[in-house]
Amino acid sequence: MHRRLITPGALAAASLLLAIPASAADYQPGAPGIGDPYYPYYGNGGYDVSHYDLRLKYQPATDELEGTATIRAKATQNLSRFDLDFLLDVSEVRVNGAKAAFAASGQHELEVTPANPLRKGTPLTIVVRYSGVPSSKSAYGFSTWHRTPDGAIAADEPEAAWWWFPSNDHPSDKATYDVSVDVPDGTQAISNGTLQPTSSKHGWTNYTWRQNKPQATYLTTLAIGKFDVTTGKTSNGVPIINAYSKDLGDKDKAARASLERTGEIVDWLTGYLGHYPFNSVGGYVPNTTTGYALETQTRVYYSPRQFANGTNTSVVVHELAHQWYGDSVSLKGWKDIWINEGFARYAQWLWSEHEGKGTTQELADYVYASHAADDAFWTVRPGDPGPDNQFDIAVYDRGALAVQALRNEVGDQAFFAILKGWPKEHAYGNASVADFRAYAEKVSGKPLAALFDTWLFQPSKPAAPAAHSASVAKTSAAVAQPKSWEEIAATNDVHGG
Ligand SMILES: [Zn+2]
Questions:
Q1: Which of 57, 184, 395, 408 has its Cβ near the most Cβ atoms within 10 Å?
Q2: Structural domain includes residue 135
Q3: How many angstroms separate the alpha carbon of residue 369 from the centre of ligand 1?
Q4: Which domain holds residue 465?
Q5: Where are the alpha helices (DSSP H) in 229-335?
Q6: Distance set, CA 327 to CA 10, 243, 294, 319 (Å)
Q7: Within a domain: residue 211?
Q8: SS3 category, 150
């Protein structure tokens, strides 16, 4: 799709490159994509990253970003060359100390040719020096770098990293992070994890953030601007850091009235999902014009628009539920998005019941009843929706309906054991929908192939008998709209990218 055309000149050069000693012949370039059929060029083959150290300097007035990325990785095949995903202008690349050749290719590939080929298993220290104006760069005709009146934001799904750091950009290669940013005095830099001591010199203030648990590239966020920062602790002692743009206008109070309940909501979610998996939690509300929120790890991104009509605790529940379902346990491939969204939406349903605004069963019945059999809603298969429907409303609502069908099939005791056991079973790792089914079958002792097929994989509305046997829509009476419906629907713009 986005493959470069190979010109005759390039072919000649390639032939010359093939004239290498036979002993080096088994060194091959790493693939330009990690192998996700939804996004063939996202991520890369041939190496596995364990840590990103980013040293950045950002000037809000001009959107100029300069940086040095030090990437710790390991070769997973004999490599003659490998790719990083990146859009800014690179001035130097070093691999294990030696200068490497590099060239931009495709939509967002940076091809790196080390001075010496790399044997499988070799530890790699890759240093990339770069600079550029992120807002001037695009791939596939779009940009997800958001400028604000006082800074900029990187927070999007699945694409966010290309505009600010070179990476193996796929959730199946998670790593720890140190993100260090120099910004003009009076401006702040917000990122994931815990804030290390700040310092100021010659008009620039340094903010360094540490994420000590594996984190997907798309969950790595950067916000630069003028913020008011609040701190606190959950009942279990997890430090809370929230940040509010000083420019939120009349949405400021509703944003605070929502995010300042982060500790309460983490405590409540812990009852269903188990021990909170990270050593920091919170969120930030920048002065953007976007509409969505995103579960950026430990520091959730919320658009001010989520608070346009007053408090919105439902969106806080959704994004914090992702810390277990999506962030600690990440998807294996983007087709597994139901693992993230079906459960984050179901957490909103549980919150609705907690708040006395409609039970999960009432919400499930309402979703089932409010979409007729010929509604396109049912053609989306939440278990493998395809890249165009990855964030379709059906992935959320039909996805949560499937969770209720599973609950009714296995019973509350097994269901809540699955809900809490899954994040522990795959903590800090990656898992697929098939893995989830296998786990649910193991815990419940029930075969679930037919149930999963009906609710997640058929491009049609589950028929009444299937619905009745899953205890959905048991009565033929009209189903009333639950009180929480409007509030939950208001969070539907959760992913705008
Ligand atoms: Zn979500």
A1: 395
A2: no
A3: 23
A4: 330-494
A5: 252-259, 262-273, 313-321
A6: 42, 20, 11, 10
A7: no
A8: coil
In a domain, 469, yes or no: yes
216 CB-side CA count, 13 A: 32
Q: 22 C-alpha to center of ligand 1: Å?
A: 50
How far apart are alpha carbons 481 and 186 in whole angstroms?
A: 48
- Taking the centre of ligand 1 as the mean of its atom positions, its distance from the CA of residue 322, in whole angstroms, is 7
User: From ligand 1's centre to the CA of 294, what distance in Å?
Assistant: 7
Tally of domains within the chain: 1
Looking at this protein, which amino acid is placed at residue 102? Answer: F
**C-alpha 469 to ligand 1 mean position (Å):** 29
Radius of gyration of the chain (CA): 24
CATH of the domain at 447: 1.10.390.10
Tokens for 489, please give them. Answer: 């629907």
Instruction: List alpha helices for 445-489, DSSP H.
Output: 449-452, 464-469, 485-489
Assigned domain for 322 exists: no
Distance between CA 392 and CA 459 in Å, rounded? 14
For 425-454, the pLDDT digits (tens) are 999 999 999 999 999 999 999 999 999 999
Residue-wise pLDDT for 223-282, tens only, equals 999 999 999 999 999 999 999 999 999 999 999 999 999 999 999 999 999 999 999 999
**Alpha carbon distance 346, 423 (integer Å):** 15
Rounded to the nearest angstrom, the distance between the alpha carbon of 344 and the centre of ligand 1 is: 6
Task: Report the Cα 409 to chain-centroid distance in Å.
Answer: 30
User: Distance (Å, rounded) from C-alpha 243 to C-alpha 231?
Assistant: 9
CA of 293 to the centre of ligand 1 (A): 8
Nearest to residue 226, comparing CAs of 177, 263, 187, 252?
Answer: 187
Q: What is the separation, in whole angstroms, between the first and last Cα of the chain?
A: 21
Q: What is the 156 CA–ligand 1 centroid distance (Å)?
A: 11
Checking DSSP bridges between strand 79-85 and strand 28-29, what pairing results, if any? Answer: parallel
Taking the C-alpha atoms of residue 57 and residue 46, their distance in angstroms, rounded to an integer, is: 30
For ligand 1, the distance from its centroid to the CA atom of residue 318, given in whole angstroms, is 6
**How far is Cα of residue 496 from the mean position of the Cα atoms in its chain?**
13
Question: What are 101-152's pLDDT values in tens digits?
Answer: 999 999 999 999 999 999 999 999 999 999 999 999 999 999 999 999 999 9
Cα of 113 to ligand 1 centre, how many Å?
Answer: 38
- Which residue type does 14 have? A
- Tokens representing 441 are 């079958």
Neighbours of ion ligand 1 (CB under 5 A): 341, 344, 494
